[in-house]
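Reading a protein record of the kind used here takes only a little practice. Think of the row as the fold of the chain written in a discrete alphabet. A record is reproduced here so that you can trace the correspondence yourselves:
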Amino acid sequence: MEVELSTVDEIIDRHGLNDKALIPTLLGIQETYHYLPPQALTRVAERMSIPAIRVHQVAEFYKALSLEARGEHIVTVCLGTACHVQGGGRLIDHVARVLHVEPGNTTEDKKFTLEGVNCLGCCNLAPVMTVDGKYYGNMVASKVEKVLDQYRDEEVAVHE
């Protein structure tokens, strides 16, 4: 995906040029490109008059931000204590098999990125999986494909 600096400029302008706007600006860029392209980080540093190293440090520090290309949909599986006890490890292994990708990686078609996280904060729903921030609780292997198919078919439904 090519980075359009005019798009990056629009995102910067939407959030403002002060230091407090840096994280919302980076989140906006990531929402557009599914990661933070180097050209976009350079543009942010220039436009916001923030040293490039500082912009890069912020991008590296926050887990919600990614310097590597990610999939169109982000799948997270909770591996915290409650989810672990309820089968979170087996769940992420199953999701990895279904998507044909190891945790921390993106599918070849760039449709999904699979990540394990330490806690999603909803232990009563263990084990939990999210797709693009939407929570799916009490997950078992038999539910995984049905949930993921909604996101696979999303593109088909839009183009019909």
In short: The two ends are 24 Å apart (CA to CA).
